Amino acid sequence: MDAFAAQSPALPLAVALSGGADSTALLLACAARWPGQIEAWHVHHGLQAAADDFERHCAALCQRLGVPLHVRRVDARAAAGQSPEDAARRHRYQSFDALALAKPAREAIKTVVIAQHADDQVETMLLALSRGAGLPGLAAMPARWRRGGVDYARPLLDVPGAVIRAWLRARGESWVEDPTNADERLTRNRIRARLLPALDAVFPAFRATFARSARHAAEAQAILNEVAAQDLAVCGQPPRLKALQALPAPRRANVLRHWLGRAHAQTPSSAQLAELQSQIVAATTRGHRIGLKVGNGQVQRQGDVVVWVPAARAAEAVPSAS
Ligand SMILES: Nc1ncnc2c1ncn2[C@@H]1O[C@H](COP(=O)(O)OP(=O)(O)OP(=O)(O)O)[C@@H](O)[C@H]1O
């Protein structure tokens, strides 16, 4: 299991250690490969009774390996309308940001490694497909990205989960089993328990082929982002109505999505984008208004341009037309 064969990460490196099988294996592999250059980061979510077991396992493992362990405690309870997994992930990355900042520059961690594997990637793609996601969703999890001046990597992304567990067992290593993994009320767990065995039976190479599709989707999305940036430069910010009307429909959708995402952190649904497109195309005279609720605000026409205004200001200006 040489997860770093393709590219050596910048050191020193932190392993995001949950105490589960995958990150336990990743820590063991990293500590053997780069002794003295590794530390472990553990986030105590405080969500389940098992959280203390996870922390104890991490502490014992790190002590045995001589790896410094940094633990952060968070209250990762989900806000209204937020899934518990999303809340935990958000708190986790905020903790990683804080841990990355906690060091003086000369000792700064250069790379953080996360232990998601090939099965996790397939599950993420299937979840995206089930929601009718576009390319960004189908691209699933990137193998590398940058956040807060630190490189993040998922070196196990091509390794099947069963290979990781077999590797641990062969070494007599233990880990903590997350009790929620068996809970089939969670869609991801149903996918793991029911769909992956079926896929294995029909398409034995599905992990590799799905991963290839995810990479194709990520590459195609990168090109679409470039085209959108170029089109937005031509349309201006906020975009001019006439310039938007001159674009073919798929490129107009692409640039609108890009503009709303980058400039306003809003993600329109497919239905909203289709409605916005028809309002833009129909606005051929000065008198035509545009008004459509998107996220927590509204897209409106202001003279020659299209703007997005937050809900409070939208209410003052134009009555909602959506
Ligand atoms: N509490 C945590 N503290 C630090 N890192 C975490 C924590 N939870 C998850 N991670 C990191 O994020 C990755 C994905 O988390 P996820 O919850 O999807 O998997 P997991 O089942 O906990 O994985 P693992 O088998 O490694 O524990 C983990 O492999 C680990 O690298």
TrEMBL record:
ATP binds at residues 18-23. The keyword Glycosyltransferase does not apply. It is found in: Cytoplasm. Its EC number is 6.3.4.19. Residues 14-193 form the tRNA(Ile)-lysidine/2-thiocytidine synthase N-terminal domain. The keyword Coiled coil does not apply. Pfam families: ATP_bind_3 (PF01171), TilS (PF09179). One of its GO terms (biological process) is tRNA modification. One of its GO terms (molecular function) is ATP binding. One of its GO terms (cellular component) is cytoplasm. Residues 241-301 form the tRNA(Ile)-lysidine synthase substrate-binding domain. The N-terminal region contains the highly conserved SGGXDS motif, predicted to be a P-loop motif involved in ATP binding. This is tRNA(Ile)-lysidine synthase. The lineage of its organism: Bacteria, Pseudomonadati, Pseudomonadota, Betaproteobacteria, Burkholderiales.
